[in-house]
Amino acid sequence: MEQRTVLVVLFDGVQSLDVTGPVEVFTGATHCLDDADGAHRGYAVRTASMDGAPVRTSSGLTLVPDSALADAPAPDTLLVPGGTATRSPDPELTAWLRVHGPRARRLVSVCTGAIRLAEAGLLEGRRVTTHWAYCDKLAKDHPGVEVDPEPIYVRDGHVATSAGVTAGIDLALALVEEDLGRAVALTVARHLVVFLRRPGNQAQFSVQLSAQTARREPLREVQQWITEHPADDLSVGALAARARLSPRHFARAFQTETGLTPGTYVERVRVEHARRLLEDTSDGVAEVSRACGYGTPEAMRRAFLKALGTAPAEYRRRFHPGPAPATAPGTSTTHPHR
């Protein structure tokens, strides 16, 4: 198998991690394959700026490209990172993308790199995402683009877009898994000490980040307790006792300060924890349900259907192709109608 060329576009004001994160993933995959059999497979990663000159990143680092864009090899994957420079138009780069973008087998953006692709007319009619702070701008400036502010990355045909910064690593790992298989992607993830990959439909914020942090210390401690002990008794009465408040006072104060009822917060934490276990372990559905505080696998199934529109067993199959771990008797694996 010949190496696939990944061309990363550089420009002044680029976000350095938008570049280096995916580059580390793609080069890591290549090293993994080279170490396995000594053959040169995987990816040939190249960087290029408009004129071939070094660029200064938004954090002040200087990156030296391999070449000017005019001299760069035709890419299999064209990757456009984000950065402060994307807040202003760049007619020269936009013109280059408009001509060369359609020639790539796969178009990828990290963070606000989606703005550059949209300016070049490459996202029309596509479902995309970008950094949460710029989703409204992208949607307003380009009404022909369907902007989804929730996921960390979105795949729509040959176009793949991701949210900010570290989400580019998740997307790159997903692309490596698609190209070279799960084993290679897992090896790279282990070297980088990250999850194999967060699923693309995972929210840009975890429950803890999306909910407000309580101002009062007892309530903040309860929030942390819920996160660290999803299998414990997390009823309003038990949580109120931990906060040393009456159940009624606790429920009212918790919702006022976090924006969520205690029950909703607990349910979201448990679903998030269950998703991670299903993605990253081989534990059976029954075992996962116990670890996440669900009384039965059926209770977890109902929670998944409500939150994600799919059953736990079907959700796991997206991340573990092949025979799935055994489910508890009576636990349905049928994908719900949508």
Automatic annotation (TrEMBL):
PROSITE patterns xref list: HTH_ARAC_FAMILY_2
Keyword Transcription regulation: yes
Region Disordered, residue ranges: 316-338
Annotated SUPFAM superfamilies: Class I glutamine amidotransferase-like, Homeodomain-like
Keywords: Transcription, Transcription regulation
Record's compositionally biased regions (Low complexity): 325-338
Bilayer-spanning residue ranges: none
InterPro entries assigned to the protein according to its UniProt record, in alphabetical order: Class_I_gatase-like (IPR029062), DJ-1/PfpI (IPR002818), Homeodomain-like_sf (IPR009057), HTH_AraC (IPR018060), INH-QAR (IPR052158)
Entry protein name: GlxA family transcriptional regulator
Organism the protein comes from: Streptomyces huasconensis
Record keyword Hydrolase present: no
Stored CDD domains: GATase1_AraC_1
Gene3D superfamilies, per the entry: 3.40.50.880, Homeodomain-like
Domain HTH araC/xylS-type: 220-318
